[in-house]
Amino acid sequence: MVFASSAPDNGDALSPPALVAPGLRRRMACWTYEGLLMFGVVFIAGYLFGALSQTRNALDNRHGLQAFLFVIFGIYFTWFWAKGQTLAMKTWDIRVLDRLGRPVTQPRALLRYALSWLWFLPPLAAMAPFTLSAGETVVIMLGWVAVWALLSRFHPQRQFWHDALAGTRLVTSPPLSR
């Protein structure tokens, strides 16, 4: 098995390894790196959407592009989470599993994707009726992200709450070889 065990080895070949949640800093560093990698996905998907829809101006067909990106992100994350890791998760030695420590299924990965929007939808919904400056929007979004991340401290296994709702968990996954 590829997971780190924090329990002492008692020689029992049937005892499962401990599934240890990565620290909050490491998970947030992975989250930030994932965001950087998504720029490439957005660029390619945006180019493809613009070419297929013959959109000349970025503001034309904006809602169509947003819906297209939502689907592309869903495909990206569902695909990689069902395999256990995205590129950013491999870099930071983090793996996503179900509650019992098994690989997640594609339906569960899709549920995790839908619930992961809890990182963004509450502040976006709260800001919708107001006309806020870009700076105010950034402060509110980053504030909510910090609150949502810190709420994992109240979960018994230190998991993010969208993982708890989706029946998934992030665990430390030591590299197979380096």
From TrEMBL:
Keyword annotations from UniProtKB, A to Z: Membrane, Transmembrane, Transmembrane helix
Membrane-spanning intervals of the chain: 35-52, 64-82, 132-151
Q: Where in the cell is it found?
A: Membrane
Just give the chief location class: membrane
RDD domain mapped to chain residues: 22-167
Any one Gene Ontology cellular component term annotated for this protein: membrane
Membrane topology term reads: Multi-pass membrane protein
InterPro entries in the record: RDD (IPR010432)
For this protein, the record's Pfam families field holds:
RDD
The molecule here is called RDD family protein
Give the source species: Rhodoferax koreensis
